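User: Okay, second chain of the day. Same drill as before: sequence in, structure tokens out.
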Amino acid sequence: WGGEEFLLFLPATTPAEAQTCIQRLRDAVAQHPWFRIHPHLSVTFSAGIAAHDWQASVDVTLNRADQALYEAKAQGRDQVCEAQPGLTAQAQAPIVSILAPTQAEPPPRAGDLDNGWLLSRSPSAVPTHKDHWFQQWVFGHDESLRPWIQRCLIASGIYVSLILAIVAYGVPSGLVSPRWAKVFVSADLLAAIVPLLVVRSGLAKKWNDPGLTLVQILWGCALCTLAFLTVPHSRAYDIQLLCVTLVFGLNHLKPIQAVLAGGFASIMFMIIYLIQTHAAMAAADDLALRLQLLMAATIIWLLTLQMRHHCNIREGVNQEKRRLLTAMEQLRQAIKFDPLTQLYNRPHMNSLLEDESLRHDRTGSGFCVALIDLDHFKAINDQLGHQAGDGVLKRFSACAKQVLRETDTIGRWGGEEFVLLVPDIGSVAQGFKAVERLREMVQSQVLCKDDPARRVTFSAGLAIRQAGEPIAALLERADSALYAAKQQGRNRCIISQA
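Assistant: Same drill. Structure tokens below.
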């Protein structure tokens, strides 16, 4: 989980069973020959366990387990503490346990910490209830809005600083007239509150610009150019603030939006230039202003080009990331799923069977395995072609997904053969009912569209796993039962006798 911490996930486990499992681990750690590393070395660990609340997020469960871990450390280490159950935690909810080594004897020498023998996190890292409440109040419950709210808070802080500067310095010093001060304070206050409230409420979540980045940039550019026009003593600062405003959305604007923002600022300065050109001004002042406007326009244009270039690079990186994620998903599909039927393939089914065997050995929760073979499938391929046979396989998989329980798992074992895993059963009769439901469903459907009169059936061999039985032996018994079903006339399921 990080450093010397480990995360233990126990599905379908009660807290008492989790305590037993961790105790076995503690016993194994205690019996390990640590003396081979150091003559006097002994290792223990502390653990915190929490039952997952199905109405809560995984982060909440991990936080509860983490707090239980620190409670175990506070009680003297080499302890196991259980978090208080959630409001809707169930008896068979998944158990999450965070474990960390706690002690090593003798006390570490100077170089031991560098070797990583004793590492522990500070208890101050545990979030307090007050911090959690404050974050929830500021950012809300939607984690996807957090980055946008943070940027709105930064922008609001800048606007509040400008308001304070105008009220505390601009008006008393005479740099800003009271009339224009009211305009700027009102505009800054509006920009500081409205975008934050809109983003925080989630109204803009489904918009193309959920953080209102472009709107805030255009508003800021308008205010900067208005200040440049009405407050001559602040023109140098206005240009700097304008550049900051444009850079505000550097990592969030699309290339066309970056050009739009820069073009808007350039047009605003062009309007100022036309206004000042027709105003009664001295020649020297007019020349200085023209130079200022020319310099501002040049800076804005160069900054716009750089923003566009940066946005293009970012868009290219995002496209490569999306292509990589698509390729990873395709690879995951290829590793786990059969491309024709979209059922699990044989290697992944083998893995699931091994996992279910381990769970059976640990909890005693039984499971059945059925090997299913479509009857006379070779005749379909020979008479109607492989395309018709592929269609039959696809429709069979659709029937299986429709009739089986969500907890049941079916995969393609090879050719026209499938394997069915029926977990959490107490007797083979329950597995037999699942196979029979599927058999009756398949028999009633038209799976061969090229020959609707042909009814597709299957034969199946069913076996329930015995305690400690290897998967290979279980599958061999199911395979023998399958061949017995074929010899007895097909279109039937035979139960293997242990």
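Strands lie at 6-10, 43-51, 80-82, 95-104, 366-374, 409-414, 417-425, 458-464, 493-495.

User: Thanks, on to the next one.
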